[in-house]
Every structure is written in C-alpha cells, then in structure tokens.
Amino acid sequence: AVAAAMRLGAVLSALRPALPLLLGLSLGCSLSLLRASWSHGAAEERCLAPGPPAPPAREAPPEAAEGRPGPGHEDFRPRIVPYYRDPNKPYKKVLRTRYIQTELGFHERLFVAVLTSKATLNTLAVAVNKTVAHHFPRLLYFTGLRSAKVPHGMVLVAHGDERPIWLMYETMNYIHQHFGSDYDWFYIMQDDTYAQAEQVKALVTHLSINQDVYLGRAEEFIGGDEQARYCHGGFGYLLSRSLLLKLHPHLDSCRNEILSVRPDEWLGRCIIDFLGITCVSQLQGQHYHTYELAKNTEPEKEEEEDFQAALAVHPVSDMTLMYRLHKQFSRIQLDRVYQEIQDLQMQIRNLTALTPAGEAGVTWPVGINAPFLPKSRFEVISWDYFTEQHLFSCPDGSPKCELSGASKADVSEIIESAVEQLNRLYQPLLRFSKRQLLNGYRRFDPTRGMEYTLDLLLEAATQKGHSHVLAKRVSLVRPLSKVEIIPMPYVTEATRVQLILPLTVQDLDFVANFLDMFAMNTLDTHDNALLTLLFIYHPYDAQRVGQVDVFAGVKAMVGELEKRYAEVKIPWISVKTEVPSQVKLMDIVSKKHPVDTLFFLASVWTEINMEFLNRCRMNTISNWQVFFPVHFQEFNPALVYRGEQTASSNTDFLRDGHFDRHSFAEACFYNSDYMTARTKLAADILDRDEVLESMEVFDVFLHYSGLHLFRAVEPGLVQKYALRSCNPRLSEELYHRCVLSNLEGLASRSHLAMALFEQEQANST
C-alpha cells in the first residue's frame, strides 16, 4: 500500500504542470457540447405565440442562390467571370495607363481658383500667391483682362472681359473643361480673401465625395425666398465634383435667364434653380468658419475664438494686411502644434509608466525614436568634434577646417537654442548667458535626426544680481521632419543616348574591350544608343598622319563593326591639341549635334551596359538636372589576389574595388543645358581660353548653371583596373585629382598592408 501511494504521488507530481491544460480542455469541450445542444433545440423547436399561423417561408431569390447579392444582403460570395473574346472581331491590344491611380479612376483632392482683376493682379493676387499658394496642390488665377507682364510664379487665365458675371461663367466652364475629371473638390475664392490653406485641406478630407456639396458662408438673397441661401464669394466656397458635373449643362441657361449684379449671387441662384441645392455652412459635422474684418483691424490684437477658428477672412484691403494676417495665423497654428506636442508627450509618459519597462522606457526627447543601437563595432555612428571656429571632421578628409556656411549657421543656431531652453527652464530664478563653447559633438542618426552634445561655459545671474560662471553639458536633437516627395519632371527610357568617347594615344590598348562591350550590350540588344569617337592627336602625330596614323587600328575596328551591323554608323572627329581639355572637346562635339541630344561622356575604361544607360536617361532631365555617376573602380589584381585565382567576371556582385569619387570623367547631360551654361562661362572669362584647361564639364555646370547636379555612386558602371596617365600640362587641381585616383585605386588598406608585410618577410629572409 505504501509503494502504491508513493507511485500515485509520483504520477500526480508529474501531471501537476499539465493540470491547467487538462482542465481548460475539459471545460472547453463541455461548453461546446452544451452550445451544440442548445442550437439544435432552437432549430427543431419553435415557440409559437397564439394567433394566426405564420406564412410559409419564401424561397431565397435566385440572385442570392447564385452568389449574387439579393435584396437586403450586404455580403455576397464573389464569382469569377471567365474571359471571353469574340473570334469574329479582330484582336486589339489593350493599352494600360502608366499609373495605377489613373486606371482605378482616382482623382486629385483639391483645386483652387482665385478670382482677380487687372487692377489687383500685381497687388492682392501677388500677396495670395506668396502666402498660401504653395500650400495648395493646384492653384490658378482667373481674370477678365491681364496686364502686359504676369507676376513670376503665377498661372493666369484671362477671359478677355471684366464683367463679373461673365468672368464667373467662363471660370466655371474652364474648370469643368480642364479639371472636372481630375479633382474631387473645387475651392473658389477672391484675391481679397485670406484662406487658411491647411484648414481648407483638412476640411475636404473629412467630407464625403458622394454628395453634392455647396459649402461656404450662407447669405440670404435680397427680397428672395427665406429658405434659399447662396455662398458669399468674399469668404470662399467649396464645390464638389458631382455638383460641378451636374451644373455644367445649365450654365448657358443661367447666363441667359438669371440677372444679378454679384457673381456669387448669380452662381447661387443658378445652383438653386436648376439643382435645388442651397448653400450650407455646416455639413457632415464640419463647420465652415469665417470672420469678417472691420476697418482698421489689428490682426495681432485679435484674440476672439471666431477669428482663430476662421477658415477664411474677408475683406483684405491691401497687401500689408494680407501678410500680417498670414503671420498671425501662422503663429496661432504654431502654438497649436506646440500644445499638441506637449499633450502627446504627456500621454506617452502616462502610458509608458504602465508598461513593463516603467518610466525607464521613456525615450528622450519624448515621442522621438530611441537612439540607434549598433550590433557590432562596424555599425557604430561616430561623433564629429567642433568648436565655434573649426570643424575637426572635414569633407575633404583633412583633420581640421574652418567652420563656414551651413555648418557655421547650424552650430550658431544650436548654441542659441540651448541657452534659450536653459533660460526657459530656470527663469526667473536664474538667467544664463553664453561665455564660450568649450566642446561640441554632433552625429547624424538616420533613425531620429542630428544629435548634439555641447559643453558650454555659462554665466548664471540670480534675481539679486549675483553672477557665477559654470560649465554645463547639454544634449539636443534636431529630429527628422516630415518626409516630402519632391516633384520631378517626367522622363522616358526611350530617349536616345549619344555616347562620346575621347581617345588619346595612351588609350589604344583599351579600345578593343570598350568596343566589344558596346557591341554586346547595346548593338546586339538594339538599345537606342549611338557612339561618336573623338580622336585626340598630339601635334607631332598630326603632322605624320599621312604616313603613320596612330589611330589606324581603331578605325579598322570601327569598320569591322559597321560591316557586322549594317544599320550602324560610328562617326569620329579628329582634334589636334597638346592639352586635351574636357571643356574644349565638348565645345567641338556640341556644335555637331542637335540641342536636344542626350550626351553620355564616357571613358575608354567604361563597360557600357543597358542598366546604366536607362539610369542615365532617368536621372538626366532637360533644363532641370544633370547626372555625374561615380563609377566602381576595380583594384589592382596583382595586389589584391597576389597570384590567386581572381573573382569570376560574370558575378552579379561588385568585385574588389572602390567607388572613385575623384573621377568626373563620366557625365550625362543634354546639349541644350551645356550650351546655356557654356554661354554664361564665355561671358565670364571673355577671351581667356587658358582658363578652360583648368576646368571640367562638372565645373561648368556647378558654377554656371542653376541645374540640379546629381552625383551618386553607380554600381552598374564598373571599370577594370588600369594605371591612368596624368597629363602634367593640366591644372594643378586636375593633375592632383588624377594622381589621387591612381593611388587610391591600387588596393584597399588591408591589401596594401598584407603586401607590405609579405615584402618585409621576403626581405628579412
């Protein structure tokens, strides 16, 4: 009995961890059985109340039986409709749109129309354009007559007649014809109206586009029906797309039948008479708040709730008042944002205290991502040291450089902000003033922004006038703000690329490989790319070209390519010079091609491929952007592999090498952009052609064009190792850059260290 009890105790002790699981399973099975019995009973037995017999249940409609929605059914089973094409009709290829939102019928959110006149175009309309225009996605100005010169940055539509009713009629027609199918909402305002752009955009995001909306400040007609209202044009009004589409067929009738002096009354009467829709100031829980300015109003002193909540303010008598209103509303909006940030930070603190980490889990600043935690020493983000005069981490690699430009402004602003925050925290007990910046550190954390650590020497003054000098360390963060998508002009991958290849006598050994790669990656694939060779003769070789042509072998290779590809012609241009200046060579090439030509200035070591040519097309935008790729330069295989087998040439990964940031030999740009920049350069240097010898095409675009210079690493542009010949007759900067490119292209530090180590071992033995 004792042995049995011991065995039972051992079994129970073994099953004890599983007892909660067994109890849960048992309870779940029991409840499921009870529920099943109840449901069967409810299906079989009905509680019949005394009264007439219930009618027989009707059969389900055939639509519901087939999976289609019947009456009153919101959910239905989807059906797959098989594709059927009539064999008797010819096949027509379906052309799909470039963007999915076009195919799905999506529209842009808001279009804004500003009604102006010839008298106020250069005053009030300009003030509207400078204050709120950049906050709206699309804004146009409509006027009857236009002045001789349209203000810069304004899209103006002139109808040719200053009559107010005619202007409104033509404006509604124009909006329907050009934008009726592209936008969901249309906001119409006058140039003497100040509208809070962000509030208007927030309003349309809370309204349903399925209703006919006529929203604004509702006003009564003079001597008309008390129930009917029109929207006052001075405070702006909002029209939905559906209402605009329904209104357009009746505009001609409204013009002929409705008599009115005010255009807003005319439009309101037209909408009421033909659509039966009256103006409202409140819709779907959203209020259209307005504020009417009195004469001699001081916007800075307006503290009424109606003023602060207003979406539109009217009338604005002059430009100065418009700018003052914009400043005041910007301050109000900024105060709201700061208050929202404080409220959110308080909520984060309260909620974080309830988490397992407790108050220790609150990051600083509250609401900003925690600092990046590296997983290895290779991921550590280094700090840059700076003072008020110098930076000790320079872009060119030098250990110390003067603090200037944007960096100096950044340091000054961050020191000023630190002292301001200290005063805000300790006033009125203490008042701090900066004596000196002892140490400064900053680093860019991609997860949160720019971080700063400052050691400040401060003078602290008390309320009684006593002062004391102390050192204090502060930490600051400049967080990453809202990410914005920069609009870029549309470019296409079908653009023809004109390759320009300058060749000197030193490049003859590499021409064969270049032509082979060009034939394989462009001619065989029928890519839309052409090649022009630029033979650069030394004056001595140019005199002997009749007897010995140093480029005869290259010309023979070109002839073989033209025989192999009958439709291809590879022209060449011969130039005689001692100093092959890149700018002078491009001057010759530019004159022989149309202005819309897309140039790719290549080097003989470049391996052309379709992937890079497409990026050259996409990254180069006429009158907007030029592209200077940073090619990948392979290291010297003799130092990297030291007799071992080299990496496979058909690998998809970059071979041992580095991105050569000292080389600007490759460039993609349009001929028109180069000609414009070259004209400005010629006016600057006059007839001093020797200046061109110290410049590259990159310098021309950098200093003499307002275009974007896109400089980025290009993994599709790989060059094999070759020791470049640096021309000592070029400028000192270009020669120094060429030498640096050769030195850094030898091998990495580890490879060079291993080569030195092996050499020392060989010398010691």
Automatic annotation (TrEMBL):
Gene3D superfamilies: 3.90.550.50. InterPro entries: Chond_GalNAc, CS_glycosyltransferase. It comes from the Eukaryota. It is an enzyme of class 2 (transferase). Residues 50-59 have a biased composition (Pro residues). Residues 47-79 are annotated as: Disordered. Its EC number is 2.4.1.-. GO terms for molecular function: glucuronosyl-N-acetylgalactosaminyl-proteoglycan 4-beta-N-acetylgalactosaminyltransferase activity; N-acetylgalactosaminyl-proteoglycan 3-beta-glucuronosyltransferase activity. It is a single-pass type II membrane protein. Its main location: Golgi. Keywords: Glycoprotein, Golgi apparatus, Membrane, Signal-anchor, Transferase, Transmembrane, Transmembrane helix. It is found in: Golgi apparatus, Golgi stack membrane. One of its GO terms (cellular component) is Golgi cisterna membrane. Belongs to the chondroitin N-acetylgalactosaminyltransferase family. This is Hexosyltransferase. It comes from Peucedramus taeniatus (Olive warbler). The lineage of its organism: Eukaryota, Metazoa, Chordata, Craniata, Vertebrata.
